Amino acid sequence: MTSTIDTTDAEAIEARVGALAERIFGNGIAALELVTINIGTRLGLYQALADGGPATPTDLAARTGTDERYAREWLEQQAVAGILDVDEPTAEPDDRQYTLPAGHDVVLLDVESPAHMAPVAALVPSVGKVVPSLERAFRDGSGIPYAEYEIHDVQAGFTRPLFVNLLADEWVPQVPGLRERLSADGARALDVGCGEGWSGIALARAFPKLTVTGIDLDEASVAAARHHAAEAGVSERATFEVRDAADPAIEGGFDAAFCFEMIHDLSDPVGVLRSVRDLLDEDGIALVADERCAEEFTAPGDELERFFYAASVLHCLPVGRTEQPSAETGTVMRPITLDRYAKAAGFAGSEVLPIENDFWRFYRLAG
Question: Quick one: 70 and 140 in the same domain?
Fold first, then answer.
């Protein structure tokens, strides 16, 4: 007895094998190139090219205090990757001059540009440090403390351009009544999960009568926030403390409370939102911004959904499970979930605001 092989199925499987293999290989190249970008950022190699102009390997090594052979290999790799330009590829290796092209400096070095992507390159080595802890967490259901990732500078690098360019000028005016509250004499705002303080600093700069109190449980973030506020000249009106939102020592009566990209990381989001509600003035405004994930699960997803889910598996879900019991939210917090948390915390509900942003969705918590 003979059997017939379905050649159509076999060809389809072979195509899928080839497509996935090619995709993973491409992802591997991209991941390795991200690490080389991070090296260039950490060692000041891009900055040296931006400040001093075209450089040979000898020039770059001298400008940055690095080894010439490593500098040459990095320069060649960056040119092959299309990140740097090289004037004469056929010249002797030590004679080639490399240039940081116009525009690439914005993406790699301009920390306040919305196009700044150097923080993305820092994600790979940051996550790489905690892979053994991730393996343990997957096996025993535990969590990983935020501080273990040493990622606060990376997260601040992502959000700083948003706060500097958009918070006061675009987002606040689209929240009914918020600009008026922040502009009033004696206005006070609470920045919950303030991170390195760029949101509070942006608000203090934009509203000269406003006092901002930033709280966060990460000591390194708060130390950085204090430093940034002092450099910005707003440290008298933007102060930062290592505190829980439930700390009874916090004086209530705030005109507004901001929760930027942090609710989904919390073990007890309802408890924190309840504290926020208690700390607000009677007519105070609570604004939450969190990931603009899809409103329901679909697969396969687009690039943004892939990014959110990868971040959730590797960072946000483990961080949220550090304390037990945990809501176990993860990065992909859909609007229906936040609405449920808000109502459980005593708010009447959450309203999705018509603020356009590629990464975040904005909610006003009512009542």
Answer: no
